[in-house]
Structures are given as C-alpha cells and as structure tokens.
Amino acid sequence: MLAGTAIAVGATGAPAHAAAPRCNGAGFFRNINRVLLDVPLYFFSGGSTVLCVMSRGDRGDDVSQLQWTLNYCYSERLKLDGDFGSLTRSALIRAQQRERVGADGVYGPETAMAMRFPQPGPGGCGRL
Lower Cβ count inside 10 Å, N or C end of the chain? Predict the structure, then answer.
C-alpha cells in the first residue's frame, strides 16, 4: 500500500480484483509530502488504498472523482455523472498519453502514480 493517510468521503461496495482492487469510493489522501489530494480510493475493513482499478462500465463516486480530476487538472470538459463511459475513457487516454504511461483507457496503479490530482482549495494539482 502507498504511504499516506486517506480520509473517507463516501464509499460504495465493490469486490476486490485479483491484482488491484476495484475503486469503490473517493476521498482525501495525504501524499508523502503531506499534501492533501482528492483521489479515487478502494475502501476495505482495514483502511483504504489509492492503488485501485476503474474501467469502462464502472459507476460511482470514484468515477465522478476521476472525471473531476480530468476536468480540473487536464482541462477536459466531462459531465460529472459518475459513469465511466466512452467520453471518460477517451479523456483518460489523453491524460495517460500526456503523462507517458500506457494509454489503454483503464485507470489503475500505474496511471494513479503518474496522474495529477486536485488539491482542496486553491491549491492546484499534485501527484501521489
């Protein structure tokens, strides 16, 4: 698990994935530099992790947070509807290309570590 502190904002149930769990909520995470970031999370009984997976067809607060990140940090214009559809996938591919990670349209640990995420208030965007 990545070092940091997560603060729950809202979560929905989702089964764990074999390699990385499916994201099931969103919340605030303090990175190694103690900067607070708004990120997708996987919540479990022992806490949470930022190293989770989302892909086309997923729905929920985690997807809404990803859409907000793509809009705020990558200048996309997605509707914040919580639906990981073709527009969200295309925007994610553009962000993956910009960050020079595998541009497959799947949000996972490699993408999470490369992306920038919103900081609360007028703080701009920061990395995990």
Answer: N
User: Cα–Cα distance between 71 and 62 in angstroms, integer?
Assistant: 14
Alpha-carbon separation of residue 102 from 7, 12, 43, 68, 124 (angstroms): 29, 28, 25, 21, 25
**Residue at token pair 């914040």:** 80
**What is the reported pTM?**
0.84
What does the pLDDT look like over 78-128, one tens digit per residue? 999 999 999 999 999 999 999 999 999 999 999 999 999 999 887 799 999
Give which of 117, 11, 120, 102 is closest to 128, Cα–Cα. Answer: 117
pLDDT at 75 over 60: yes
Work out the angle at residue 39's Cα, subtended by the Cα atoms of residues 5 and 96, and round it to the nearest 5 degrees: 130
